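Section 5.1 Outputs to date
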Amino acid sequence: MTLNHIVIVGAGQAGYQVGASLRQEGFTGRISLVGDEPGVPYQRPPLSKAYLLGKVAAAALRFRPPEWYEDQRIERIQASVSQIARAQRSVHLSNGTDIGYDHLVLATGARNRVPTVPGIELDGVFGMRTLADADALSPRLATVRHAVVIGAGFIGLEFAAVAAAKGVAVHVLELGTRPMARALSQPMSDVFSAAHSGWGVTLDFGQTVASITGEDGRVTGVETGDGRVLPADLVVYGIGVLPNSELAAEAGLEVRNGIAVDAQLLTSDPSISAIGDAVSFPSPLAAHPIRLESVQNAVDQARNVAARLMGKPTAFAALPWFWTDQGELKLQIAGLSEGHDHTVINGSLETKQLSVLCFRQGRLIAVESCNRPADHMAARKLLARASTLSATEAAQAGFELKAYEAASREVASSA
């Protein structure tokens, strides 16, 4: 089928990248980029870090200026999609119009999981997902004295580090037993626990939230599950996200912890692809379909779909990698550490310059690097080649990941 019109639903990282990659691949047809946020697509990771600190202006967050979309003939439509009519190959927009498509790309992203506790609607309670969230939150940091963060994941701890740097007393409540437990090994969690404690952040694990208290519609505190009431002029929650898969489900597409796709990122309808945070996809790194929430995943999947639509199909198998900046700590993760049964530490816990190598059944599956960017780059190259590095080798005195990667690459090229 000739593709004359490609419609992209979702104007975040993944949606923008599909449009940009299609033009880079030589697509000359019509591209419509549909999203309900005003303005042009922008970067989200800096919102909870540099943007809150005032180090980055809103204009600098844009992937491209508005005129770029005009030059590239990418039609930016500010609206939401209320229905997909698969039989007619069209989408119905919230502004009342219908747009036909030859191929549809769903890049609908995810939304914050909102705590189901009394008081969540009070003024001064925030999630952190959009530029509007950051713009509403930022001016409050200059006046608040006490902030409570619900959730010790990436977003919650990024905000905690920013607030602590601005002199706010921060108390983090986390149901689990350590920070970022879903993504990190125990040794690296310990590094970040110690760092946050050193910045004056109170980390409170194994805790639930009973309610958020307030006066005259404004937040004043948080009641914990064990009966304490913590003072709070500001509450920020970050307890994970939910994939925006409802539109796909209502259209009869298969949904399974997100929009289900095959190895080429096609849904159960061959005229519809899906990418990014909302997608559950097969991975050679996991025994079951996975859903990843990361910039790298969104970008790589977008490029993969654009290439396929231009006649160059390949199974999606990009190595996942992630990062977070908290205070003076830059954490970079290559691979997926889920199910690891052994770790080897290279570097210094004391100086917070280290890498944790995660093994499962003797095979290297992930590397977590704190303030060691060279290790991170080496790990990405090594894991992409299905490394044979053993835990015994990694634990030897003087072992350097960068040197090992270079040597193993040379051996592989000469074989």
